[in-house]
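wait is this the right file?? whatever heres the structure
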């Protein structure tokens, strides 16, 4: 199920070739090259481009094309949160971070945040807000964060012409598409999406998180997809024409609109699911073209019991049905992208006015009309009991007469 570690070991070994050079780029333009594009242009296959911490903006740090080069571009510190590429794009603009043409799997993008990308210039090129892949490009994307990108199709990433990226251990949060695929959209090819977390991605038409179409045989393994929205169909996944994903050990939960999975042609599309948990999606869970699949192959529909989904913490409570080897599907390994992160009894303070209650999640506290305090775990003494007393400036002065 988990092939990421082996793949990365091979890629890092290739990048460490004795002939490889390391080129350093800094946000202020110092380093070996002034911009990311300049470093890419100068790099030879097997070279490593390291980006120091900070935010890369301005010309030369977006709309970067990578053609047939087996290079690695990575955060020097290894922290995606600290190393950011932000084209600052918006409506009417084409400001995409990177495009790939024919790049193979030894082209590696690692531990970088991509935000503020836009493919909204109007027309047929509005594909992939952060990244576009074409001509059978198959880069490896690992440990990255994609957030706040937008496009006509593929809010974060669009792949066409048989592009087959391997995307692993990434986060896709609050990306947007006008038509298809709030986070990802693939047309033809066999892609691998592994151990990734998706939340809050939106398409204003189809496929809140992911769209596969025109023969795409996308594999989705060990992912968590939460809170997507697509009013015309598929808050998590939309299969167009004969797009046929294989989905394993994945959670799809709390979709806001469109049903969890949808197919525009159920006779042509053949999605398959095993050891998956689809639960709490407005518009339906195991419905439409996946109706009845919850009765076999380890598939279930049960509250995944996240530690704090409202706080974007999708680790599992120890009593979650998604923990590997547990009921109701003990034949399945871990379901979702996150491991156990809290005990079944983990509770924190919820202040309902002056009353202290203990709740497991911020969502439960909000239902009670309270304010959640994860920094407190006891009501003794009562941390909520300090009242706010209305008074006037005159009354305060009178205290000192």
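ok assuming it is, sequence goes like this
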């Amino acid at each position: 199920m988990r092939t990421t570690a082996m793949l990365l070991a091979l890629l890092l070994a290739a990048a460490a070739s004795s002939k490889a050079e390391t080129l350093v780029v800094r946000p202020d333009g110092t380093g070996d090259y002034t911009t990311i594009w300049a470093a890419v242009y100068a790099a030879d296959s097997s070279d490593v481009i390291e980006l120091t911490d900070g935010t890369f903006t301005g010309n030369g740090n977006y709309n970067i094309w990578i053609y047939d080069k087996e290079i690695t571009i990575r955060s020097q510190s290894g922290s995606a949160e600290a190393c950011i590429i932000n084209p600052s794009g918006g409506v009417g603009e084409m400001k995409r971070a990177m495009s790939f043409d024919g790049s193979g799997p030894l082209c590696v993008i690692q531990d970088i945040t991509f935000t503020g990308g836009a493919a909204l210039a109007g027309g047929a090129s509005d594909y992939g807000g952060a990244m576009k892949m074409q001509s059978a490009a198959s880069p490896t994307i690992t440990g990255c964060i994609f957030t706040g990108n937008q496009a006509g199709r593929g809010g974060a990433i669009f792949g066409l012409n048989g592009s087959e990226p391997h995307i692993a251990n990434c986060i896709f949060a609050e990306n947007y598409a006008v038509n298809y695929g709030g986070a990802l959209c693939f047309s033809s090819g066999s892609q691998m999406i592994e151990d990734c977390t998706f939340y809050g991605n939106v398409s204003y038409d189809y496929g809140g998180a992911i769209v596969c179409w025109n023969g795409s045989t996308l594999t989705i393994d060990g992912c968590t997809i939460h809170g997507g929205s697509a009013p015309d169909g598929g808050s998590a996944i939309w299969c167009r024409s004969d797009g046929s994903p294989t989905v394993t050990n994945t959670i799809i939960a709390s979709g806001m609109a469109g049903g969890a999975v949808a197919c525009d042609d159920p006779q042509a599309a053949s999605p398959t699911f095993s050891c998956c948990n689809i639960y709490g999606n407005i518009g339906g869970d195991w419905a439409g073209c996946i109706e009845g699949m919850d009765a076999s192959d380890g598939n279930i529909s049960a509250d995944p019991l996240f530690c704090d989904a409202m706080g974007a913490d999708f680790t599992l409570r120890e009593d979650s049905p998604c923990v590997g080897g547990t009921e109701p599907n003990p034949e399945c390994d871990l379901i979702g992208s996150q491991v156990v992160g809290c005990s079944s009894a983990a509770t924190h303070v919820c202040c309902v006015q002056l009353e202290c209650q203990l709740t497991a999640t911020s969502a439960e506290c909000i239902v009670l009309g309270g304010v959640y305090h994860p920094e407190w775990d006891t009501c003794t003494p009562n941390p909520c009991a300090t009242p706010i007393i209305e008074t006037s400036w005159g009354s305060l002065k009178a205290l000192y007469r």
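The chain has a mean pLDDT of 90. so i think its the right one actually
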